[in-house]
Amino acid sequence: MKIFFFSVIFFLLSSCKSQKLDILEIDFEADACYGTCPVFTMTINQNGTANYDAKMFNERQGQFTTVIKNSQLDSLTQLFQESNLISLKNEYSTNWTDHPTYILTVKFKNGQIKKVSDYGPSGPDKLKKIYHFIFSLRQTQDWK
Fold first, then answer.
1. In what order do the strands lie in the sheet with 39-45?
2. Is 13 a residue whose pLDDT tops 60?
3. Which tens digit of pLDDT belongs to each residue from 69-98?
4. 13 or 118: which carries more pLDDT confidence?
5. Which of 25, 26, 27, 140 could serve as a FRET partner for 83 with CA atoms 20 to 30 Å apart?
6. Is cis: bond before 100, omega within 30 of 0?
7. End-to-end CA distance of the chain
């Protein structure tokens, strides 16, 4: 009876966990604003290989590659899970002018694609955490 009880509890607890996101590729684009907003694109593949194209207003300009550490990939995936990415709107916008637009495109292993265009940025805080993390990768990786 105890085994049955613990099996039911384990099943209930494990089914409450959010499903792991099987992300194939993450594409991020930070577009220009009226001013010195960083303009760049970054692509992160499931195996951690990443390409960074620093166009304007970054510490350095050019095209760079790196392999992102598994712990940081896991942190990024966790941010996606916490944001409930699939349920987010496809577009956010503010009424103010001269702000950057961020475009986040996530390709999943099941063929699904989620694209969010965010002018301002004006999306929810959980989305802004993803942006902040991606922006931080520009300084925390050994780009070559």
1. 62-67, 49-56, 39-45, 23-30, 101-108, 113-119, 91-92
2. no
3. 889 999 999 999 999 999 999 999 999 899
4. 118
5. 140
6. no
7. 60
Q: How far apart are CA 40 and CA 54, in angstroms?
A: 5
DSSP the chain: -HHHHHHHHHHHHHHHSPPPP-EEEEEEEE---SS---EEEEEEETTSEEEEEEEESSSS-EEEEEE--HHHHHHHHHHHHHHTGGGS-SEE--S-SS--EEEEEEEETTS-EEEEEEESS-S-HHHHHHHHHHHHHHHHS---
For residue 81 the two structure tokens come to 């899970």
pLDDT on residue 12: 37
